[in-house]
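seq:
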Amino acid sequence: MRLLIFTLLLIGGVIQHSSAQQLFLKTGATVSNFQYKNSAGVELENLQSAAKVHFGVGNRYPMNHGTLFFTYGASWNNYGAIGSDPRLDNFFEWDLSYLGLRAGLDAKFLEAHNFSLSFSGSIGAEYLVRGIQVINNQTYNIRNTEEYDPLNFMVWGGTLASFELSRKSAICFQYQLGYSAFNAQRAGNDNEQLRILAHQFSLGFLINISNVYCPF
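struct:
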């Protein structure tokens, strides 16, 4: 987490004098599911996805003639899943909220009139600020517990479509698939682990915040 923060600050310091830059704002739905193994190393198979809300804000900088953009910013992501184990007659539910930092690249591969389509990829470090786990009729606060690491590292990839509204703004639609990396959510022993798989659908705005025109 400290390394990612340092890297973002360093890159931000290098490009803060860039003549063209954009502010992005986005929100939408995160449809997530978990891959969970219990303390015996047995995977819980009957887990179902849950839909939550996410938010993002940050900056976007053109790197070469408006076809490659560097992005970085802050995110608020909510993940959840529900499931049961008929062998043990157990019911499970997770509701997790993370505050994070994310950095990535947008690579434009299609442009026509006021429309553009880009590949979008990023990596993020997230910190658990709220975590609820339900087992049968019992509710547990898993934040700051030894069993769950509060840090989660996500790798994201997908597409970004933008429609230019004016020289100063554009509306955008984004889809990204995310997966937790580095086994960040390992619990107390080596066999128990929790990984997050997420589909993220976003509606947002890109706003030119410099006097120099920045293509979308």
